[in-house]
Amino acid sequence: MAATSNVSPLSSSSPLAKPISKNHSFSLNTPQKTTFPLFPKTLQKPSLFPCNHVCHTQKPQLTVSSKKPISDFFSTSRKEDGSAFVDDDDDKPREECGVVGIFGDPEASRLCYLALHALQHRGQEGAGIVAVNNDVLQSITGVGLVSEVFNESKLDQLPGEMAIGHVRYSTAGSSMLKNVQPFVAGYRFGSIGVGHNGNLVNYRALRAMLEENGSIFNTSSDTEVVLHLIAISKARPFFLRIVEACEKLEGAYSMVFVTEDKLVAVRDPHGFRPLVMGRRSNGAVVFASETCALDLIEATYEREVYPGEVLVVDKKDGVQSVCLMPHPEPKQCIFEHIYFALPNSVVFGRSVYESRHVFGEILATEAPVDCDVVIAVPDSGVVAAIGYAAKAGVPFQQGLIRSHYVGRTFIEPSQKIRDFGVKLKLSPVRGVLEGKRVVVVDDSIVRGTTSSKIVRLIKEAGAKEVHMRIASPPIIASCYYGVDTPSSEELISNRMSVEEIREFIGCDSLAFLPFDSLKKMLSSDSPKFCYACFSGKYPVMPREVKVKRVGDFLDDGLNGPFDSIDGGWIQGPRNLDTEKEIDPLYQKTKI
């Protein structure tokens, strides 16, 4: 019988969470690993030892989308003071997390702070750092941007040569203070901190099993499950506890762990979410979600953490690589290249800038149109627009100016302003648009609500024609692997044909990046990417209800029982790979 455990992340109600005292730690001695010196000039790909692992999946029931008008799903979000929620106009998939880990630098927490700045685009509503000093894990977490959570005095409270950090996007409700990572917990053999990017598709089943055995949960985050699994593991030495815990997980996870003397990085067997390794000139080892974080703190990129790999760093043995489990073909998230990652990052071994530039070139080749100027929806559509303009031989100009100083809410005047949220964020340049045939390049269309407002904004600025070009295929299915997307019935491409979408958003023509052209562009790497949001075919089938409904209450980590989560989720789709007929849920877009 599994040991009863009470593993609760530190409360973040005060600026400095109470440090957790050390019990004792383990050294790492096992023949089934590859050891590297802590300060090597080069790092070769490890030989991963074979493991035996069996994955069981089961097909959820199908939810058929309704034919209600898409506008039925949305209502104006307004606070008691009359301020409007600007986020409702953002209409983009949300990457939920970014992680960083640093070992062997006397200013680890400050470097962690800077790296989180570079990863701020991956999550803007919560940030935290855990540092290790004198075998004690100290944690500071808070709600808001990295610059709002941390200052000089708080960083002074995080001394030590080892630290991990996390930024998150809150998926619903208020700011979810309890759910801000990294989580820190004490158990019988010491203390551990964890930061997680991804989503576990078997979270509820694991939580139910743990609660039956006496575990007490303090948050509604799936990451806390990992801490409990480590606590009840009887494996030795310590890193095998992480291996044993991760073998029970299904879904997407790129995680960094910290103990009294070790930094550990783990990536799931499919490699859904990115995680890279670098090294500073003083030999400090750095892990981060994107290479842009390495650039800011002057760490040299060495390689990715391979899918299914556990990397353990300590002073005694340096960097050790261990196989998590035998892994199938990688299924890396294609949306990292379409939208999430910064253009200056290298993700999955490819330049994000180059990928987006080629997406634009493909659109210009396969969906040409007579035009006078090419503009982008900033910021994520800029590189694709540059590629489109270069291929089409048409000037690229800045037709929309984005405000980078817009907060989450603004007080709207009593005289209602149409398209208020979009106008706060985007301002048209009349001199660029007036009397012109304009091609507008955006990275994606999710619900279509923002796109229609942008088209109206450009036409009101005097554009003669507006032609939308989207640098991704139509999104027809929800993501279960760490991206906040609406349920399938809210996705406009799942409900309407391309022509119907064109009419809905009010542009003169509309074209998406062809799915086949995207895979052709990726060439031999094409099978290594996950396209579930475009095809509805899931590499790891969602076993549980894990897609949000807009407007439903979800536990914010501060109030509301765990059962209240049920109201915010709907059943996931079945595996299309095993079906002879196309599901009605996806039929319209797959014609």
Q: What does this 3D model show about the protein?
A:
The protein is of the alpha+beta class and 591 residues long. The chain is 23% helix and 23% strand. The protein has 18 helices and 30 strands. The strands form nine sheets. A seven-stranded antiparallel β-sheet has the order 1-16-15-11-10-9-8, covered by helices on one side. It starts with 33 loop residues before the first strand and ends with a helix. It is an enzyme of class 2 (transferase).
Furnish the topology, listing elements before pairings.
Layout: E1 34-36, E2 83-85, E3 94-95, E4 97-103, H1 108-118, E5 126-133, E6 136-143, H2 146-149, H3 152-156, E7 162-168, E8 183-187, E9 190-200, H4 203-212, H5 223-232, H6 238-246, E10 251-258, E11 263-267, E12 276-280, E13 285-288, H7 291-296, E14 299-304, E15 309-314, E16 318-323, E17 332-333, H8 335-340, E18 346-347, E19 350-351, H9 352-366, E20 373-376, H10 382-392, E21 400-402, E22 409-411, H11 420-425, E23 426-428, H12 430-433, E24 437-442, H13 449-460, E25 465-470, E26 483-484, H14 492-495, H15 498-505, E27 509-512, H16 515-522, E28 529-530, H17 532-535, E29 547-548, E30 569-570, H18 584-587
Parallel strand pairs: 17-28, 20-24, 24-25, 25-27
Antiparallel strand pairs: 1-16, 2-22, 3-26, 4-7, 4-13, 5-6, 5-7, 8-9, 9-10, 10-11, 11-15, 12-13, 12-14, 15-16, 18-19, 21-23, 29-30
Helix pairs in contact: 5-6, 9-10
